[in-house]
Design a protein that fits this description.
This protein is of the alpha/beta class and 563 residues long. The protein is built from twelve helices and 40 strands. The two termini are 40 Å apart.
Length: 563
């Protein structure tokens, strides 16, 4: 069935599979199924709405509202939220139930929930377990010596990256796993000493690769398999290759910039596959792996009977419209950062570690169950708006609130950007769906005007940096560099400088946020387009837009070309 998106006005399809999944996920409250309605917004507007609630990578210095000490937080000093240091927040010497309240049936649900959000203390950062020397990170678990990395786990000595697992000594990366000593890599897995590359697996000691597997000592190559000593897709001897690499002044920013441009032009001569993914069964998506019967999913692994999932690397079943995580997820719908054996979690944010039957809740964890509209609860059950009820009382009241939300057209919708804890420009939504301040305000959404001050002994435009990294003195650690794109100041930390020197790399001239945006631009959008295979003319669906310059092949033609 076709519908018109209530936000952007575009026509979108609600498939039979969508309706089946919605029926599976509709919660049963007090013996009655509270049916989740068909979405009123298209997939992209639904994703934008979710991401407008998710600040994954904006960090600030502020004081803890409990102890008064300086902390690193995802909330600005000007935020209306009450913020506790993450370690203090997890202690048992304060009780989020003290902020409980009754539900008012004369008002919609969302405004009441926002009022609760502003009262219950928030954790300064969304960090599970204990990390070592990794204060300037967020949304992660089990890190050591990491800085400005987000949405990841079990990694050490990593800097400036997002969506990752099992990395070591990597910097400036996006969607990567099981790799070491990689720099400026996107969607690379099981790689070692790889630089300026994307969509590669099991590659090592190489530069500027795209869509390569099992390659070693290669430079500027695309679509190569199990190759060694290749330069711009041409086979060389070991001696020729080593002489070529040695001749390149990799410490020079202008040299690397020219090589980046040459690589992008070179890649256009080699076909790309309509969508990327391996070992999938009856599934459609991009950058998905080991998925079964899953549709319209992106950057995911281990899904079964799922739809509209993004950045869920740890597996899920019978779930839809979830951004980030998984790990034993079942029957979850319309959430952000939901993981570690969650079951029947609906329209929630950061609900983790064994939760079940949780509706419209935020930062609830550790085996919580039967919660509706709760904030910050742990080891609790049968609670509504942080107030305790008996099982029978809960079932009756939760059912009536669900019916009330159906009348107010809130049921099944994710939290609106109007009640987000963050400004739109602080959230992941602004990376995937960038908007100007005026447009955000016109929508009635929030915008953060807070600018953190960068303390430095000297401010220098990026263009004034020495071209060669070897000419950069240690004093650069005290400078603020003005991004060549945005003009926004940023600083280099000691560990970064050591990485550049150890690996003979130039000093970056763009702010970390801009570098993150640049990496996202190397990925295709979470969107399908109708095209024809450039070789066999078969109709295909691809994440390459019709006006993209890439030569796009269907899966069969691509495999014939590469193998």
């Amino acid at each position: 069935m076709d519908k018109q998106c209530a936000q952007c006005g575009k026509t979108f399809e609600v498939s039979k599979e969508d309706l089946v999944l919605l029926d599976k996920n509709s919660p049963i409250i007090g013996g009655k199924k509270q049916a989740l309605p068909a979405p009123t917004m298209c997939f992209h507007c639904r994703l934008q709405r979710r991401l407008a609630f998710y600040n994954g990578r904006s960090l600030y210095k502020r004081t803890c509202d409990l102890t008064g000490k300086e902390i690193v937080s995802i909330y600005t000093p000007m935020s209306k939220m009450k913020v506790y240091d993450r370690d203090e927040w997890y202690k048992d010497d304060w009780d989020p139930m003290e902020y409980g309240r009754e539900f008012d049936f004369s008002r919609p649900f969302f405004p009441q929930f926002r009022e609760l959000l502003e009262q219950v203390p928030m954790p300064s950062r969304a960090v599970l377990g204990f990390n070592q020397n990794s204060d300037f990170t967020n949304d992660n678990w089990k890190l050591k010596n990491c800085y400005m990395v987000f949405d990841g786990e079990q990694s050490e000595d990593c800097y400036h990256g997002q969506t990752f697992e099992f990395l070591k000594n990597c910097m400036d990366f996006l969607v990567s796993s099981h790799s070491e000593l990689c720099y400026e890599c996107v969607n690379c897995n099981t790689c070692y000493n790889l630089k300026y590359s994307r969509f590669c697996d099991n590659c090592s000691d190489s530069w500027f690769l795209r869509d390569c597997i099992g390659c070693k000592n290669c430079f500027g190559c695309a679509n190569m398999r199990q190759k060694q000593y290749c330069i711009w897709n041409e086979q060389k001897t070991k001696e020729e290759y080593e002489a070529f690499v040695k001749s390149i002044q990799t410490t020079s920013w202008s040299t690397i910039d020219a090589l980046k441009k040459r690589a992008e032009e070179f890649f256009l001569h080699y076909p790309v596959r309509a969508t990327r993914g391996e070992q999938n069964i009856d599934s459609a998506g991009d950058n998905i792996h080991n998925c079964k019967l899953s549709q319209n999913c992106f950057d995911c692994s281990g899904l079964e009977d799922c739809m509209h999932m993004t950045n869920c690397l740890m597996g899920a079943k019978d779930s839809g419209d979830i951004h980030i995580w998984g790990l034993g997820m079942e029957l979850c719908y319309n959430g952000v950062v939901i993981g570690s054996k969650p079951q029947r979690v609906i329209c929630s944010y950061y609900v983790t570690e064994g939760p079940s039957d949780v509706l419209y809740s935020v930062f609830c964890s550790r085996n919580v169950k039967y919660l509706f509209g709760c904030v910050g609860l742990r080891h609790k059950e049968y609670c509504i708006l942080n107030r305790q009820y008996s099982k029978d009382e809960y079932m009756d009241l939760a059912g009536r609130i669900a019916a009330h939300m159906q009348k107010t057209d809130e049921w099944g919708l994710y939290f609106p950007p109007e009640i987000s804890m963050f400004g739109y420009n602080e959230t992941a939504a602004n990376v995937l769906f960038p908007m100007e301040k005026e447009d955000v305000v016109q929508q009635g959404w929030q915008w953060s005007n807070y600018e953190a001050k960068v303390e430095a002994s000297r401010t220098i435009p990026a263009a004034s940096l020495p071209d060669d990294q070897t000419a950069v003195l240690d004093d650069i650690l005290n400078w603020a560099i003005l991004c060549e794109v945005t003009g926004k100041p940023f600083k280099i930390v000691k560990q970064e400088l050591e990485f550049y020197r150890q690996h003979d790399l130039p000093i970056p001239r763009r702010h970390p946020d801009q570098r993150h945006t640049d990496r996202f631009a190397l990925k295709n959008p979470f969107r399908f387009f109708d095209r024809e295979c450039a070789k066999c003319s078969q109709a295909i669906q691809t994440t390459y837009a019709p006006d993209c310059p890439e030569v796009v092949y269907c899966r069969n033609c691509y495999m014939q070309e590469v193998y």
